[in-house]
UniProtKB/TrEMBL annotation, chain A:
Keywords: Cytoplasm, FAD, Flavoprotein, NAD, tRNA processing. FAD binds at residues 12-17. SMART domains: GIDA_assoc_3. InterPro entries: FAD/NAD-bd_sf (IPR036188), GIDA_C_N (IPR049312), MnmG (IPR004416), MnmG-rel (IPR002218), MnmG-rel_CS (IPR020595), MnmG_C (IPR026904), MnmG_C_subdom (IPR047001), MnmG_C_subdom_sf (IPR044920). The lineage of its organism: Bacteria, Pseudomonadati, Bacteroidota, Flavobacteriia, Flavobacteriales. Residues 548-619 form the tRNA uridine 5-carboxymethylaminomethyl modification enzyme C-terminal subdomain domain. It is found in: Cytoplasm. Coiled coil: none annotated. It holds the Pfam family GIDA_C_1st. NAD-binding protein involved in the addition of a carboxymethylaminomethyl (cmnm) group at the wobble position (U34) of certain tRNAs, forming tRNA-cmnm(5)s(2)U34. The gene is mnmG. Its cofactor is FAD. Homodimer. Heterotetramer of two MnmE and two MnmG subunits. This is tRNA uridine 5-carboxymethylaminomethyl modification enzyme MnmG.
UniProtKB/TrEMBL annotation, chain B:
Its cofactor is K(+). Its main location: cytoplasm. Homodimer. Heterotetramer of two MnmE and two MnmG subunits. Residues 221-384 form the TrmE-type G domain. GTP binds at residues 231-236, 250-256, 275-278. (6S)-5-formyl-5,6,7,8-tetrahydrofolate binds at residues 23, 86, 125, 462. Its EC number is 3.6.-.-. SUPFAM superfamilies: P-loop containing nucleoside triphosphate hydrolases (SSF52540), TrmE connector domain (SSF116878). The keyword Amino-acid biosynthesis does not apply. It is an enzyme of class 3 (hydrolase). Mg(2+) binds at residues 235, 256. This is tRNA modification GTPase MnmE. Keywords: Cytoplasm, GTP-binding, Hydrolase, Magnesium, Metal-binding, Nucleotide-binding, Potassium, tRNA processing.
Length: 623, 462
């Protein structure tokens, strides 16, 4: 059945697998996407939303490189919000609520239209490996499929174990069976594996809820979108979410089930994410809080199913039901399905290179939850990078990596392979040293030229980016060169409690003041005229505003990043023998031996490696 | 590797000597030296050939700091391979520090441990076999600086910074919390509390910076009053101390010293010994005035050394105990060192008797040198345990001083950001920089600290 040798075989078709397959195929590699159930491509196993703080930036980055997540997020959106708009531009974070079914459907249709991409439904139970090099996969039916590289994106399926109260059963997701065989084979090859835990809340029937008792949370008045391309449009109508609270009474009811909770009776041993705790964890750890927020999120345009965000739980279903029933607005609630916790295998990501290729087996790549991450966006971005690198490797081209000051994707992968992770890893803006550089508005400027060079981002994408930034630059130059008279600007300044000026000055200086924004300067005739004459759109105007108002901070971070990146150029040879360096601390030597960083800069980020150790290392690198 | 910044450090061993060499290395080394050097011939250094020496003065604005010899080495023919300037100045610690600080204030950065050698490597001036030899050197250098850090820590300096850093870190976490978890039901960082914290940090940083800038320790030396009768061997003791260390002669204008004084440097810290008469009770009017003066001098001193001869202990132990109590009552917080000199005349059992009768007595023979080293250790111990200056912390390490200055600068930016209502993500840039400089003193900081703090203290996550 499979006589050809594929360039890239992608195992799993979640967010990571779908992006990996799309990237590899779009880069001209003959690609096969193998998954246990082709009906479930790009499922949103958890909440029906894409983006959010730091995650929205990642989706924009994926889009800028030529991935599909941004486009699908736009076409399946039912609500758009730009979070953190009151803060500086580095914090602006796009997020959509999604139509779960449309999201999966749109992904599948996009993949079907992608050239070079074949599909096959079967469980992969093992890898074909010759001399530490992957040569294909084997399915549970015993079929062998030859491939020059393999990307594993197994999500929560590897030996997945679902817990609801004191019941547990094997499964990769509610209603789907777990995958076996791969972990065992990889461990026998010398890989370290571990267990992680995550959870999900109950899904309920929206018709059984009383929304009049809840707080409505509508989308933005002027919604934007993810994709930099104009093939998607901002939403014209949107669906609202709702918010309500738990209460002491709800907490008491939940506590009654604690003795049957797999979290507390020791049945679940693995670590869940601290930032995404279950409701029982929240009331246990933060006992002084008498209520917690619950977000009621519709699962689509038309479906009545809703997602109870904030109520993730693995308590027995009767306890879940009784407690949820006493939440305001949920008095008559009907369950679609209870919440559950799931334990699954992952492989500590320090076993990977920056390309996401494993150090042990050539041509084998890992992406997504298998690396200990959580989140659709984190998974999708790794899939994209693994797909790109698998493709480049087969085509014998130089690998592609992103640095920490270039993209959140760079921060994510560098954190994973350098520091590893003990709990499911989620992106936060505070993980990035240079977040002022990694904004959602400039992902195209940062990454589209790279995507274009890879053959992923289209020429049209590149042109759009260039036009936008050229127009913005010209607009900024206009502010730098145009003066304004005191009589024209002082009324505006006074209205904003900003001290008036005595003589004419450049607009740039006025605009840089903290309490003056674009809306204020647009009251000056010359500015509004410029905008109309040049027919500037929202994106260009916003870009110019950011460049003017935050130029000082952007320059400062750029400077800091440049300083640090010098160490980036000091390479450490492969298999460098650290045990030789006696003047380095024992802990540092052990950690360095384990991680095998490729540059001194990477070495400096490993916990336990001190600046002194780095000085010594630099001496040994003595170029 | 291209290093853009110019670094400065003392190239000769720390401490006082006849001359000291201060080295600058980096692209701007010659230009920066030119800005603060006036050669006797009136020529500019930048116009001079490489490997030449020039006589002139180091000048801070209009003030002459010292007469120096300047050697210039131009890129790439220097130790580091960059432009290098070596200033040979007079060896007093005061002059060394004045010149280094002058350059720190004007565009130079303090060199890290082994950084000159590091640059030499990175610029291909040394080969691999040489590298291994130098690596050992650098390791030992780190050990030395580690020791200094440990001493500072005992002095309370590092722990003071660590405490401030922790408070700042807590606030940084609150700021990050409202950024990364804006959607959640979390409390926001109270800006007025934050302003208070920044005020406190500013105050402490200023005090620490001043403690160095005023340079009580390095500039003037720690005043030590030696109290004792004329015949107990004060001058022999001073000579014994001075014989091993090099005396430095202070020529600082405006400092008037009233009594016979000697200065010496122990492990880089200057001590100024003030001779005083004893405090034996007397009816003689002239002598009574002398006793009053002695107490005045003790008042001004940071450490009091009470020196007796061993014979006195034998015959007049009662009187001595009264005198010790008197000093202790008058200056309960002042470190007091009781020394029995001339112990060479005692036998072993007599020595033991002395120890049991007088708590914490220090036995010494200025003549034979027995106990002199221990005395030095005790004196330096007062600095390191913070017993001096009534437990006020002193910064003596130039590298720390450099970090403190930078932290101060960043904290001022945070302050003005707070005042103008700057948004959290931009405030965070300056806070992170400040934390970074605190971290240079106390150890590493990573972003994981912030997140760990958030997860430990706040209920987050939908």
């Amino acid at each position: 059945m499979f006589n050809d040798v594929y360039d890239v075989i992608v195992v799993g078709a979640g967010h990571a697998g779908s992006e990996a397959a799309a990237a590899a195929a779009n880069m001209g590699s003959k690609t096969l996407l193998v998954t246990m159930n082709l009906q479930n491509i790009a499922q949103m196993s958890c909440n029906p939303a894409m983006g959010g703080i730091a995650k929205g930036q990642i989706v924009r980055e994926i889009d800028a490189l030529g991935g599909y997540s941004g486009i699908v997020s736009d076409t399946s959106a039912i609500q758009f919000k730009m979070l953190n708009k009151s803060k500086g531009p580095a914090m602006w974070s796009p997020r959509v609520q999604s139509d779960r079914m449309r999201f999966a459907e749109d992904w599948r249709l996009l993949l079907e239209q992608t050239p070079n991409l074949d599909f096959y439904q079967e469980m992969v139970s093992g890898l074909l490996i010759e001399k530490n090099k992957v040569v294909g996969v084997k399915t549970s039916l015993g079929i062998e499929i030859k491939g020059k590289s393999v990307v594993l994106t197994n999500g929560t399926f590897l030996n997945g174990l679902i817990h609801i109260g004191d019941k547990n059963f094997g499964g990769g997701r509610a209603g789907e069976k777990a995958a076996t065989g791969i972990t065992e084979q990889l461990v026998s090859l010398g890989f370290d594996s571990g267990r992680m835990k995550t959870g999900t809340p109950p899904r309920v029937d929206g018709r059984s809820l009383d929304y009049s008792k809840m707080i409505e949370q509508p989308g933005d008045e002027n919604p934007e979108k993810f994709s930099y391309l104009d093939i998607t449009k901002p939403l014209e109508k949107q669906r609202s979410c709702h918010m309500t609270y738990t209460s002491e009474q709800v907490h008491d009811l939940l506590r009654q089930g604690f003795d049957r909770s797999p979290m507390f009776n020791g049945r679940i041993k693995s670590l869940g994410p601290r930032y995404c705790p279950s409701i029982e964890d929240k009331i246990n750890r933060f006992a002084d809080k008498d209520r917690h927020q619950l977000f009621i999120e519709p699962e689509g345009w038309n479906t009545v199913e809703v997602y109870v965000n904030g109520f993730s739980t693995s308590l027995p279903e009767d306890v879940q039901f009784k407690a949820l029933k006493s939440v305001v607005g949920f008095e008559n609630v009907k369950f679609f399905r209870p919440g559950y916790a799931i334990e699954y295998d992952y492989f500590p990501p320090t076993q990977l290179k920056h390309t996401l290729e494993t150090k042990l087996v050539e041509g084998l790549y890992f992406a997504g939850q298998i690396n200990g991450t959580t989140g659709y966006e984190e998974a999708a971005s790794q899939g994209l990078m693994a797909g790109i690198n698998a493709s480049l490797k087969v085509q014998e081209k130089e690998s592609f990596t992103l640095k920490r000051d270039e993209a959140y994707i760079g921060v994510l992968i560098d954190d994973l392979i350098t520091k590893g992770t003990e709990e499911p890893y989620r992106m936060f803006t505070s993980r990035a040293e240079y977040r002022t550089l990694l904004r959602q508005d400039n992902a195209d400027l940062r990454l589209t030229p790279k995507g274009y060079e890879l053959g992923l981002a289209s020429e049209k994408r590149l042109r759009r980016m260039e036009e936008k930034h050229e127009a913005a630059e010209k607009f900024v130059a206009f502010f730098e060169t145009t003066s304004v008279k005191p009589e024209d600007i002082n009324p505006i300044l006074e209205a904003n409690n900003s001290s008036p000026v005595n003589q004419s000055g450049k607009l740039f200086k006025i605009f840089s003041r903290p309490n003056i924004d674009m809306a204020d300067v647009r009251k000056i005739d010359s500015v509004e005229t410029y905008i109309q004459d040049h027919n500037l759109d929202r994106e260009v105007i916003e870009q110019a505003e950011i460049q003017v108002k935050y130029s000082g901070y952007i320059a400062k971070e750029k400077n800091n990043a440049d300083k640090l990146s010098r160490l980036e150029y000091v390479k450490i040879p492969e298999n460098f023998d650290y045990s030789e360096i006696k003047s380095m601390s024992f802990e540092a030597r052990e950690k360095l031996k384990k991680v095998q960083p490729t540059t001194v800069s990477q070495a400096s980020r490993i916990s336990g490696v001190s600046p002194n150790d780095i000085s010594v290392l630099l001496v040994y690198m003595g170029r | 590797m291209i290093n853009e910044d110019t670094i400065v450090a003392l190239a000769t061993p720390s401490g006082a000597g006849a001359i000291a060499v201060i080295r600058l290395s980096g692209k701007e080394a010659i230009t920066l030296a030119d800005n603060h050097f006036k050669s006797v011939s009136g020529k500019k250094l930048s116009k001079q050939k490489t490997h030449t020496i020039h006589l002139g003065h180091v000048i801070d604005d209009k003030r002459v700091i010292d007469e120096v010899l300047v050697s210039i080495f131009k890129d790439p023919n220097s130790y580091t391979g960059e432009n290098v300037v070596e200033l040979s100045c007079h060896g007093s610690i005061y002059i060394q520090q004045e010149i280094i600080q002058l350059f720190l204030r004007n565009g130079c950065r303090m060199a890290n441990a082994g950084e000159f050698t590091l640059r030499a490597f990175l610029n291909g001036k040394l080969d691999l076999s040489q590298a291994e030899a130098v690596a050992d050197l650098i390791a030992s250098d780190n050990e030395a600086s580690h020791q200094i850090a440990m001493q500072q820590m005992r002095g309370g300096f590092s722990s003071e910074i660590a405490k401030l850093r922790e408070e700042l870190l807590n606030f940084a976490s609150l700021i990050e919390l409202e950024l990364d978890f804006a959607e959640e039901d979390v409390e926001f960082a109270d800006r007025s509390q934050f302003k208070d914290l920044i005020e406190r940090i500013t105050f402490v940083l200023k005090r620490l910076i001043d403690s160095f800038a005023v340079g009580n320790v390095i500039k003037n030396g720690i005043p030590v009053a030696i109290v004792g009768e004329p015949n107990v061997g004060k001058s022999t003791l001073l000579n014994a101390l001075l014989n091993e260390e090099r005396a430095i002669v202070s020529d600082i204008a405006g400092t008037t010293r009233d009594t016979i004084e000697d200065e010496l440097v122990i492990e880089g810290i200057g001590f100024r010994f003030i001779d005083t008469a004893g405090i034996r009770e007397t009816k003689d009017v002239v002598e009574s005035i002398g006793i009053k003066k002695t107490f005045e001098k003790m008042e001004k001193a940071q450490v009091v050394v009470l020196l007796f001869s061993a014979e006195e202990f034998k015959t007049e132990s009662k009187r001595l105990k009264v005198e010790i109590e008197k000093i202790k009552n008058k200056f309960p917080l002042k470190p007091l060192l009781i020394i029995a000199n001339k112990v060479d005349v005692l036998n072993d059992s007599e020595r033991e008797a002395l120890h049991s009768e007088f708590e914490n007595i220090h036995l010494l023979s200025a003549k034979t040198g027995v106990g002199v080293d221990t005395l030095k250790k005790k004196l330096i111990g007062f600095v390191n345990t913070g017993a001096l200056r009534n437990n006020e912390t002193i910064v003596t390490n130039t590298r720390h001083y450099d970090s403190l200055l930078k932290a101060f600068e960043e904290v001022q930016k945070v302050k003005s950001g707070l005042e103008s209502g700057l948004s959290g993500d931009l405030l965070a840039i300056d806070i992170r920089q400040a934390l970074y400089y605190f971290g240079e003193i106390t150890g590493e900081i990573t972003n994981d600290d912030l997140l760990g703090n958030i997860f430990a203290n706040f209920c987050i996550g939908k």
